[in-house]
Amino acid sequence: MFFTKERIRQICHTHETSAAKGAMEALQAEAQGMDSAWWQERKSTLLRLKARTRETDRPGPVMRHGSMLRTTALNLLQICFVQACKGGTLQPYQTEMFEFICANSWCVQGNFDGWKSDLWTADIGMYLSCVYELLQDELSEEKKDSYRKFLYEKSFCPIYEEWVSPESHEHCLDTMGHNWWSVCVSAAGIVLLLQDPAAIEGYDEKLGNVLHALNAWFGYAGNCFLNKRPNFGPDGDYLEYLGYLSYALENLSVLQCVLESRGMGTRLQADAYLEKLPDFILQNIVWENGTPAGANLGDSGLRNTCMSALIYLCKRYKRGDLLGILQQIRPCPATVFELAHYPDAKMPTEIRLPQLALYRLSGQAVLRTGHTKQDMVLVVKTGDSWNHNHLDSGTFELCNHGVKYITDSGRCSYLNPLYRGYYIQPKAHSVVLLDGEGEWAKTNYEGTKFPGGFPASLCEPEYRYVLADCTGAYAPLYQRFYRSFFMLDEFVFLIDDVQTYRDGVLESRFHTSEESMQLNGTQITIQNPVGNGHILFPFAKNGDVSVETAYRQALPENEQGEEISPTGHCAVCKTTTDQLRAKLFTLIDVSGSAGAPSIKASFANNVYDIEICRANKTHRFLVNVLADGRVMHRNAKITYQNITTDAFITYFCYDANRRLQSFAVHNGSLLKIGNACMFTSFIKETCFKKLQNQQEP
Q: pLDDT digit string (tens) for 99-117?
């Protein structure tokens, strides 16, 4: 199986000189405090929480009792693991712990829907199955039969009946949360493999059904009636994002190891889906206070409490690049599962991935200058993640030099009172609101028929661009909501192209992970210890820009202070629509230098002209409002100064002597400077060109 005493001794010996040696010492030190006295105190707390669940029908007390019961099962496994390493023997209080846990309900969230099983049924069953493996040599035959029966009846049977059985299942892949299926069904498989096949009627059929159900989870294709998309996308992404990915694979990784130990590893058709995940995880790593973390999209970023499945991926696919990042988050394993999955051999840690990644399933894009702490990273979200969705299509996160300047603040514990009232709401995200309204509230539960996407993108060494179509989730509010992100010279220039169904006031919002924002006219300074950032609004007037008090991301579940929401700030710029349309311009400087770039901005002859000057370089953007789609049968060609184009956005880069170094055309078929034709096409394209012989416009 997974945690036999022989396997434990092998783990201890193999990792004697590796980073995992520190993990063993930490686990031993922690387990030393989990003695009989500790257990009596824990039992008293569990009994008190259990009594509270009888006094209220609110989910909070029930969740806290179930959560502590689950944690206690994991604590027991840790105690037994360390004991096996030391060659110790079973203590009476450990038997009491096992039997006390078995005497309680293992169904927590499902209680309120009349279910017989849920995530706790699965996790507790999986943890205690591993405990049984470690204890079985010291148990009498009577106790062995009793414990196996406990696990079979309390974990396998209710999960199998509700999730797997062809005759009686209550849940199906279409109606159940994406991660729930793998967590529950994988645990059922682990518990079943622990049993004596001769003692279980229809054992082979049940095991076959469990594995078939998991293979169906990998290949799930979505459901149009429920606006539910597949679990895994063609680009290697997982719909519910990083935090729920790691949890979804935690039990499954253990099951895969158990199957392989019995020569049945190929019965899970997992590799086609799992082998792409390390790239997806690495591309979504951002840096916060100098430490790698997952971007906060939807309900969670990278969960430190569910790292074992990611370590399993590193070992299975020899991904030292991902392991190197995980080691920066946590230098050595922190749980028995992380230790058991930890790779034995060293692997290359250099990250060799594209600097642009587009994920069609989840509607996410990542632009980066590299994969080190000093690099600039932009993560944009346009899609929804079904039951873990927030009203946040169009939100983004931006970091540079290990500092997160713009963040998605909508992450907190489900038990936080502000979860539904603030954290999932549009105002908690860096999006554009109309008269205080944002994404349609129903998409939080129902999803959307019109997922976002990225119709155009460019990735050059000095010019990175992505066009984010965020319209779908805002269908009742906006006819079009396009966000054009340009990443250049340690700043991001954002052009929002919005068309509404009614005139009103648009509100661009930008949240920060830092505590302080300072307003100076129409410029906002993001203050942080590494170096200040700046948010500039080229066409704003005094009074249009403000700094609001907002909430920063709160602590996740199961941590002290999970109901506390720290305050922060949000930059806001207001713009009034004109005939249902507006173009919004924002420059976000993340260089950390003392001053922001200088900006010149004007509007004439249907063209917005913005120049951004920094050091010996000038970046110039021309936005042709006639070319935003309003002209149907005639080309929206304009002549502005000595430039002729039909492009929606045209970019020019000049050196200190005003010589043209490069240009880009966005949704255009023609660009002329004077009499020189710089670009021509029979369709409107997006392209970038670096000039060899410098030319003056």
A: 999 999 999 888 778 899 9
Give kind and range of the element (H or E) at residue 621: strand 617-624
Side by side, the strands of the sheet bearing 505-511 are 432-434, 505-511, 567-576, 545-551
- What CA–CA distance (Å, rounded) separates 216 from 214? 5
Residues in the chain, total: 697
DSSP 3-state assignment of 587? strand
**442-458 pLDDT, tens per residue?**
888 888 888 899 999 99
Nearest to 290 by CA among 375, 406, 408: 375
Taking the CA atoms of residue 267, residue 272, residue 274 and residue 277 in that order, the dihedral angle to the nearest 10 degrees is 180
Counting Cα atoms < 13 Å in the Cβ hemisphere of 658 gives 3
Q: Is the pLDDT of residue 11 over 80?
A: no
Closest listed residue to residue 458, CA positions, set 691, 645, 690, 688: 688
Bridge partner residues of 379 (DSSP): 366, 397
Predicted confidence (pLDDT) at residue 556 exceeds the cutoff of 80: no
- Please answer whether residues 280 and 233 qualify as being in contact, where contact means their C-beta atoms are separated by less than 8 angstroms: no
Q: With b meaning 16 or more CB within 10 Å and e meaning fewer, what string describes 550-570?
A: bbbbbbbbeeeebeebeebbb
Amino acid at 621: F
Higher pLDDT residue, 552 or 681?
A: 681
Q: What predicted TM-score, i.e. pTM, was given to this entire model?
A: 0.94
**pLDDT (0 to 100) of residue 5:** 66
